[in-house]
Amino acid sequence: MPSPTTDTATGPSPAPVGRRERKKAATRQAIADAALRLFLERGYDEVGIREIADAADVSTTTLFKHFPVKEALVFDEDSGQETRLLAAVRERPKGQSIPAALREHALTTRLAAADSDAGFTAFTNLVASTPALRDYAQNMWLRHTAALAQAIAEESGLAAGDPICAALAHFALEAPRAAYAHDNPRKAITRAFDLLEHGWSALT
Amino acid sequence: MPSPTTDTATGPSPAPVGRRERKKAATRQAIADAALRLFLERGYDEVGIREIADAADVSTTTLFKHFPVKEALVFDEDSGQETRLLAAVRERPKGQSIPAALREHALTTRLAAADSDAGFTAFTNLVASTPALRDYAQNMWLRHTAALAQAIAEESGLAAGDPICAALAHFALEAPRAAYAHDNPRKAITRAFDLLEHGWSALT
DNA sequence: TCAATAAGTGCAACAACTTAATTTTTGAAG
DNA sequence: CTTCAAAAATTAAGTTGTTGCACTTATTGA
After folding, report:
1. What is the pLDDT, as a whole number, of residue B15?
2. Chain B residues whose beta carbon lies within 8 Å of the beta carbon of residue A138
3. A139–B139: do the CB atoms touch at under 8 Å?
4. What is the pLDDT of residues B44-80, one digit of tens each?
5. N or C: which end of chain B has fewer CB within 10 A?
6. What is the pLDDT of residue B110?
7. How distant is C1' of D12 from CA of A52, in Å?
8. The domain A19-71: what is its CATH number?
9. Cβ B29 to strand C below 7 Å
10. Does domain B19-73 have CATH number 1.10.10.60?
C-alpha cells in the first residue's frame, strides 16, 4: 500500500536532475496532491477529473499525460514502491537471505510510511470504502506479487514458475498488511518474517 | 471460468416460470449472445455498447438493465456458476466430505463445459488477451473464493476467518484451471482433489 | 376488467478518456 | 545571445461507457 504523502526527504526516489524533469515532477506532484486532497474531502466518486485539473491548474489532457486512469491518481507513487521493493531483493547485501532483505524493507520503508503519516488511516479508509479503488488496489497487489515472485526466482536460481517463489512473495506482501492490525506492528512483522526465513532456508 | 454458450439443456438453472420472466431471460440471452459473437469476431475493445444493443435489437438502456457493466456481458452466466458452486458444497449428500463434493462439481460441471464447448478456447483467448477482461475475471475469481471460503467455514463449523477454509477454497478453484494444461484433465483433477481430501481430513 | 407493476424505449446528458493540431518552455549548439 | 528541435502543456473536438428521466407497452393478480 503506497503512502499518499509528498516525498520530502532525499529518499531512494530517483532525484530529478535537470530543471525540465524537476518541473515535470512538480506538475505531477501538484496534480496528485490536489487529487488526494479533494478525494479525502469529498469522496472519490464525487470529484471529477476536470475539477482536479482545475485545482492543480493544468488541463485535463496534461493530467492524463501523467496518470493513465483516474484510479492512478490515488496510487501515485505505486510504481516507485514496486521498484524499491524489487531493488530491496536484487541489491541486498552479499550474504543476506531473501526473506531477511524483505523483512528489512518491510520494517524500514513500509512501517515508516505507515506510522509517520498521520493521514494514512484516512487514505486506507478511502480505498476500502470505494469499490473502484478496492478493485484497482487488488489487481495492483497481484501484479506486485507476480513481479516479486519473478525476482525471487531469478535471485534464488529456482524455476520461474516454482510455487515456493509465489508463496514467499505472497506472504512477504501480506505480512505487513496483517501487522497493522496488531498492537505492536514492528514485532509482528519481525516474527512473521522469522517464520518465513526458517521455512525458506529449509526448502532451498 | 464460465462457459460462454447458451443454456439449452434443462440444467440446474432456475427455469423461468411466467411468460414475463421467460421473455426477460430471452432478451438477456439475446444480448449476451450478440455481444459474445461480436467480441469474438472483432475483439472486445472494437465493439461498442450501442452496436451490441443494435445487434440484439434493444436500447442501450435495456442492455444496462440486464448487465451492470460492459465486462459483465462476457461473463454472462457467472453468477449462476457461483450459485451452483456454493450449492454443491451446501447441498452435498450426507456423509460426503467437502473436498469430495468440490471434486464432483469440478468433474461434472466445469470439465463438461470445457471440453463439450468448441468455442471454449476462443473464449479463453479473448479474456486472456484483453486487459480489462483479465482484471475483471481476476476480481471475480477472488470474490468466488471468498464466497466459497465462507460457505466452507459454515459447513465445517470452523471459524469464519480460518485460513484453512480460504486455502481449500483457493485450491479447489485453482485445480481445474491448472488441469486444463494437463493432457488428461480428468485424471489431474481427481488426483489434485485426492491430495486436498487427505490434507483436509487430517486437519479437521 | 382494471390497476399495479415490471420491462422496455428514446433521448439527452455526464464523466472518463482520446486524438490532433497548436503553442509554450526548455536545453543546448552555434 | 540567438536559434532551434524536442518535450511539455494547451485547446478543442471527439468517442465511449454509463445514467437519469419521462414515457409506452405488456403481464399479472385481484
Report:
1. 60
2. 138-139, 142
3. yes
4. 999 999 999 999 999 999 999 999 999 999 999 899 9
5. C
6. 84
7. 19
8. 1.10.10.60
9. no
10. yes
Sign of CA dihedral A198, A200, A203, A204: negative
pLDDT at residue A10, rounded to an integer: 32
DSSP A6: -
On whether the A78-203 domain is CATH 3.30.1490.100, my answer is: no
Confidence of residue A5 (pLDDT cuts 50, 70, 90): very low
Q: Is pTM beyond 0.70 here? A: yes
Query: Would you place residue B10 in the very low, low, confident or very high pLDDT band (cuts 50, 70, 90)?
Result: very low
The residue written with cell numbers 476480481 in the block is B139
Sequence-distant (≥ 6) Cβ neighbours of residue A106 within 8 angstroms: A172, A175, A176, A189, A193
Cα separation, A173 vs A88, whole angstroms: 13
Show which residues on chain A lie within 8 Å of chain B, measured between beta carbons. 135, 138-139, 142
Q: Is residue A140 a contact partner of residue A75, using CB atoms and an 8 Å limit?
A: yes
Helix, strand or coil, per DSSP, at residue B58: coil
Place of cell 484453512: B164
Nearest-Å Rg of the Cα atoms of chain B is: 18
